[in-house]
Amino acid sequence: MSFLDTLIAARKEAGLTQSDLGERAGLSRMTVQKAESGALDPRMSTVLEMARALDLEPMLVPASLRQEVEAFLRSGGKYLGQPSGVSAPPSIVETLASPGTTPRPAPSRS
């Protein structure tokens, strides 16, 4: 999925129109429409404003790590081979999604 496809999906999931997104991002509806349709190759600043208006924070990932990072995120932040069950350490996604919580230490393996 391309970056713009991700933005489009996030906009639709948020129930926003192109006009709504434009207003939140300080852009015209036409700019949002042209960027989403591919009729315009938007500036990085435009894409960043659209992302931030959708409460997304773009992250640069080295190309050599992209597949691993995507798999990690799809897994819910669990490492391969991580134990399951009550004694399992929380996933990083769960930890980050719960503001104010302190991650519990992983159980010892002795």
From TrEMBL:
<dbReference type="InterPro" id="IPR001387">
    <property type="entry name" value="Cro/C1-type_HTH"/>
</dbReference>
<protein>
    <submittedName>
        <fullName>Transcriptional regulator</fullName>
    </submittedName>
</protein>
<dbReference type="Pfam" id="PF01381">
    <property type="entry name" value="HTH_3"/>
</dbReference>
<feature type="domain" description="HTH cro/C1-type">
    <location>
        <begin position="7"/>
        <end position="61"/>
    </location>
</feature>
<dbReference type="GO" id="GO:0003677">
    <property type="term" value="F:DNA binding"/>
</dbReference>
<dbReference type="InterPro" id="IPR010982">
    <property type="entry name" value="Lambda_DNA-bd_dom_sf"/>
</dbReference>
<feature type="region of interest" description="Disordered">
    <location>
        <begin position="80"/>
        <end position="110"/>
    </location>
</feature>
